[in-house]
Amino acid sequence: xxxxxxxxxNIDNSIFKPILKPVFLTNTSFSYDIIExxxxxxxxxxxxxxxxxxxxxxxxxxAGFFKRYISKTKSVIIFKQGCFIEEVSVEQVKDVFQxxxxxxxxxxxxxxxxxxxxxxxxxxxxxxxPIEAIRNCYLKQSHNFFNEKWLEHLDTDVTxxxxxxxxxxxxxxxxxxxxxxxxxxxEVEDLTKLNDFVVWKNQxxxxxxxxxxxxxxxxxxxxxxxxxNGIPKRYDSLRSAIGYLSHHYFNPSEGVSIILxxxxxxxPNSPMGGTGKGLIANAxxxxxxxAKVDGKLLNxxxxxxxxxxxxxxxxxxxxxxKKDFEFETLFSCLTDGWTIERKYLxxxxxxxxxxxxxxxxxxxxxxxxGTSNKRRQFIVELNDYYSSKFVTGNESPIxxxxxxxxxxxxxxxxxxxxxxxxxxNIMLYLKNGLITYETKNVEANFLIQSTxxxxxxxxxxxxxxxxxxxxxxxxxxxxINSYYDGGTKLxxxxxxxxxxxxxxxxxxxxxxxxxxxICKFSFLSPNQELT
Length: 531
What we know:
Elements: E1 23-26, E2 29-32, E3 35-40, E4 45-51, H1 53-63, E5 65-69, E6 75-81, E7 84-87, H2 90-103, E8 108-114, E9 123-129, H3 131-141, E10 168-172, E11 177-181, E12 185-189, E13 199-200, H4 219-227, H5 232-246, E14 257-262, H6 277-285, E15 290-294, E16 315-319, H7 331-336, E17 338-342, E18 345-350, E19 357-361, H8 371-375, E20 377-382, H9 397-402, H10 412-432, H11 442-450, H12 453-461, E21 469-471, H13 472-483, H14 492-505, E22 509-515, E23 518-524
Parallel strand pairs: 7-13, 14-19, 14-20, 15-16, 16-19
Antiparallel strand pairs: 1-2, 2-3, 3-4, 5-6, 6-7, 8-9, 10-11, 11-12, 17-18, 21-23, 22-23
Helix pairs in contact: 5-10, 11-14
């Protein structure tokens, strides 16, 4: 993913075509290429005055530099080459134009007819502007041009972006345009189909592609089978989640984040990991432009928390968020669009329908309380097929079984079977939507990580009867004496809150009563009404 350190653009100076004919500006001035001349009475001749503003603007347009609106009021500078566009910085534009100026290797020589007197015929003035004079003028005045304010004068590019629709997903490879739909399957077409559109360069796949129907023998497909324990419903669920993330169409009313968890019961103080969550993100990264956010450094109050998200970002991957990360932070992004503030770059807004999708890979279960949280979370658990092979911690079980995935040395067939499998996942999603399955340990892990392993074990050992009343203090004392020998910071109020959470996690209703200083509780089945 790009950062604020902007790489040098790979642009040939030949994109700049010198303006080899003098242009009359006023009765006393004219321009030649990027230089403006003005008549001086003292010498009765035309002398180099300054850089020619319109000439530089024309050069930049001719080279492919434009501004493009990414919201109603905000624009960015882009470089356009054919049907491909990329966001560029002021420094990049300046570097490219300066390389053109420095490439001028001979003086500007030209003649210009000028009238010295209104009663005399025009005479020819011959000019030869040394290279050093051109460069010196540029270096003295370039600051007037290469700044955000002046570059707002660039022409606006309004060519439509190629976008996914509700029923179709598009992918641009080096040799073809691939369209995936539930109706027509996978269509491979010539790149000329893009003539009326533009595509963000970072969204293109820099490989040639050929669809291979029999594609489940690729190493990544085998990996997905392993992490879903070969259970068909869970396997399809993971594939549909991959398809959902790879389809760059966002419906705000259905906005969900895909969350990958470990299936194994996890100690909140030393979560296991190593199941392959990051590998799934990196697989999707081979097709879509991902902005990766380090969850450990994610501060919801930081205005630059999503500064790595760019106009061309298609997925925001939050990797390993902190235990106390509030999932509610993402609610507005999942429904109202993204307001992105970037250091030293313009703020911009991504409309809800153009929003990147959200992938969260976490070793701890995020807040599950309330229907608002649950309906915005689509969860897939990965089993410990690989993590169970760790003994010393130095093993690489995924690489040992599959080799290094997505490596440059992969053969064309390796890449084609992988891409074909991923495109089939998208088609599965377009046909069936997100496929749910009954998760195994999400609620149990959430309960452990929100309370205490000892508490979960203790509650599991009690013989609770539906509808029967239990004295809260008696149970609290029993728990403390059983596990802490009477010494703990846990108070009865906190213990009561744990009981309430326990009820939710095991799908029971909780009822309580208080009389004469005695607090009691009862568990009811979910469909029973509380009294």
